[in-house]
Automatic annotation (TrEMBL):
The chain crosses the membrane at residues 37-58, 78-99, 158-176, 182-200, 265-290, 302-320. PANTHER family: ATP-BINDING CASSETTE SUB-FAMILY B MEMBER 10, MITOCHONDRIAL (PTHR43394:SF1), ATP-DEPENDENT PERMEASE MDL1, MITOCHONDRIAL (PTHR43394). Residues 56-325 form the ABC transmembrane type-1 domain. SUPFAM superfamilies: ABC transporter transmembrane region, P-loop containing nucleoside triphosphate hydrolases. Keywords: ATP-binding, Membrane, Nucleotide-binding, Transmembrane, Transmembrane helix. Belongs to the ABC transporter superfamily. This is ATP-binding cassette, subfamily B. GO terms for molecular function: ABC-type oligopeptide transporter activity; ATP binding; ATP hydrolysis activity. It is a multi-pass membrane protein. InterPro entries: AAA+_ATPase (IPR003593), ABC1_TM_dom (IPR011527), ABC1_TM_sf (IPR036640), ABC_transporter-like_ATP-bd (IPR003439), ABC_transporter-like_CS (IPR017871), P-loop_NTPase (IPR027417), Type_1_exporter (IPR039421). It comes from Gracilibacillus orientalis.
Length: 597
């Protein structure tokens, strides 16, 4: 595990070093394989050895035919020498092939694992706003499908393109040594193949990009559809979701079909052209032999080498679509690898102790690609240990304030200070270890209840776990489960009710012993009885700690030190519960509306 971490860290450091260099495609490939060129070179040497029978066999065959057609010109030892050389070359293929694949696989598999690990690490470091703009399904496609396409491209390059190049070089070199007339004929095939590739390259690249983008779109929609199944089922909207996915699948089918037809025409065109050239080569060399300008055996040699040239060029052309997919995947993952939208704050200052003094100094905030400010000239000074509650209609900016305190977003203008230290200077990782966040939408993973409560904590005593369970009012649930704390809760905690999931999240907050607490409608999924019990426990949790609360149930915030009433991104009222009720302003209207419901 530590070795894998070292791999991913090394990859991440390489990509960071290359941030400002142009040429993203080749830059990405260079960064990925840097440090593995020696393995690839050794693999290539063993490839030359293992592939040598393909080049030597035509020469030996021609020599034997020439020997048989004119035995008086050659000695018998000439025959045995050719047979011995061919036998040795064939036998060495076994160890050479194993070593060739071994060195190549070590490099490619290392890059594959390191690349996926680096993508995951990079996703952890990118800003929340970056993630909010990309569907999780699209990100999964990049990590899984695109890396697989790059692996295939790497193998095709090592096992398809390089052998093809060497076949052409060896064939032309041997032919040139025997006949420049035949060599000149051979060289005509190469520009023809280049013209075919050039003609189809743009169209293939376009088709591959369209298909890849459509697959990513479909992947994102499928992930969303699966998550929405309970809501879809509850409202009888199955056909709506099915039609939505079917529409995307129809688009994928269309893009895939056009890609397949382009690839088919691409392959067929080069095959027909090359077969015609092969026939011409045969006629040309037979004519030269008939004229006595070359030995009869050389007809087989030239025909074999010309076939190798054509097959090599044809092979490269046939795998070009796979290479194009790989190159497109490199472009796809580079969108993440070279993304500069890292987390909002990059400060280094670590707070040994978090007192909890928070100052909002004329804070403005608007989301990217939006001109409307969510917060406008927001000012608030929070004392250490003070409990601040935010109320207001949806879109007033309540949750945005919590996200700003957590460091998920950064003010468009103004600044936020924690213990009189600007958040720009703070180390977010050390700061967040001292806070506990209970979001409105409970986030759990598919482990046990214990795993979810102790998430991210290396050493936790059983006493601390039991205390957190008790304070979050989870004991009655644990007692009813056959496996207790070790009960698996399913993906996203789907085996638990909404209230049970929320209490697990609250227990997670308790056990972290935070110095600051952020509660975003943390009791929204609880019934009245559980809410009362949780409120009692929360009083213990937040005692002496700076606490920010967003709640739609006003009973939850009755004891808050101050209640901030938000409207259109601004604070319109502030005071204690009783003060605001007596004032009969905005808060009073919210209270009346909630009681009417």
């Amino acid at each position: 595990m530590s070795n894998q971490n070292g791999i991913s860290l090394d990859f991440e450091k390489r990509f960071e070093e290359q941030q400002d260099i142009k040429g993203r495609l080749f830059r990405t490939l260079h960064v990925m394989y840097r440090g593995h060129y020696l393995k690839l070179f050794v693999s290539f040497i063993f490839f030359l050895l293992k592939h040598s029978p393909v080049w030597i066999l035509p020469i030996v065959t021609a020599n034997l035919i020439n020997f048989a057609s004119d035995p008086s010109t050659y000695d018998v030892r000439y025959l045995w020498m050719n047979i011995i050389v061919l036998t040795i070359v064939i036998i060495q293929n076994l160890p050479s092939q194993i070593l060739h694949i071994s060195f190549m696989s070590k490099a490619i598999r290392h890059v594959e694992a390191g690349l996926r690990s680096t993508l995951i690490r990079k996703l952890q470091h990118l800003s929340i706003s970056f993630h909010s703009e990309l569907r999780s399904g699209k990100l999964q496609a990049k990590v899984l499908r695109d890396v697989e396409m790059i692996e295939i491209m790497s193998k095709q390059t090592m096992m398809g393109v390089l052998p093809a190049i060497m076949n052409v070089i060896v064939a032309i070199a041997v032919t040139a040594n025997r006949s420049w007339t035949v060599t000149s004929f051979f060289l005509v095939a190469i520009p023809i193949s280049i013209l075919i590739v050039y003609f189809f390259r743009g169209k293939l690249t376009k088709r591959n990009r369209e298909f890849r983008q459509q697959v990513e779109e479909m992947s994102g929609q499928v992930a969303e559809t699966v998550e929405m199944i309970p809501v879809t089922r509850a409202h009888g909207l199955e056909k709506v979701e099915i039609n939505k996915v079917d529409s995307l699948l129809h688009n994928v089918r269309g893009k895939g079909y056009r890609l397949d037809i382009t690839e088919a025409f691409f392959g067929a065109s080069n095959w027909v052209a090359f077969q015609l050239f092969q026939v011409l080569c045969l006629l040309f060399t037979v004519y030269l032999a008939y004229q006595g300008k070359i030995p009869i055996g050389d007809v087989v040699l030239y025909q074999t080498y010309f076939t190798q040239i054509l097959m090599s060029i044809s092979g490269v052309i046939n795998i070009y679509p796979q290479l194009a997919k790989g190159y497109e995947s490199v472009h796809s993952i580079s969108e993440i690898l070279f993304a500069k939208e890292t987390q909002e704050y990059q400060g280094k200052t670590k707070l040994k102790k978090l007192d909890g003094k928070v100052d909002f100094d004329r804070v403005y905030f608007k989301y990217r690609d939006s001109e409307k400010h969510v917060l406008t000239d927001f000012q608030l000074d929070v004392k250490p240990g003070e409990t601040i509650a935010f109320v207001g209609e949806s879109g007033a900016g309540k949750s945005t304030i919590l996200n700003l305190v957590t460091g998920f977003y950064r003010p468009s203008n103004g600044r936020i200070l924690i213990d009189e230290v600007p958040m720009d200077d703070l180390s977010m990782r050390s700061f967040r270890k001292k806070i506990a966040v209970v979001p409105q939408n409970t986030i759990l993973f598919s482990g046990s209840i214990r795993d979810n409560i102790t998430y991210g904590l290396a050493e936790v005593t059983e006493e601390e776990v039991q205390q957190a369970v008790k304070m979050a009012n989870l004991q009655d649930i644990i007692d009813e489960l056959p496996d207790g704390l070790e009960t698996k809760i399913g993906e996203h905690g789907d085996r638990m009710s909404g209230g049970q999931r929320q209490r697990i999240a609250i227990a997670r907050a308790f056990i972290r012993k935070p110095q600051m607490v952020i509660l975003d409608e943390a009791t929204s999924a609880l019934d009245n009885v559980s809410e009362k019990l949780i409120q009692d426990a929360m009083h213990q949790l937040i005692k002496g700690k700076t606490t920010f609360i967003v709640a739609h149930r006003l009973s939850t915030i009755r004891d808050a030190d101050r209640i901030v009433v938000m409207k259109n991104g601004q604070c319109v009222e502030m005071g204690t519960y009783d003060e605001l009720v007596k004032k009969q302003g905005e808060f009073y209207q919210i209270k009346m509306a909630s009681e009417a419901v």
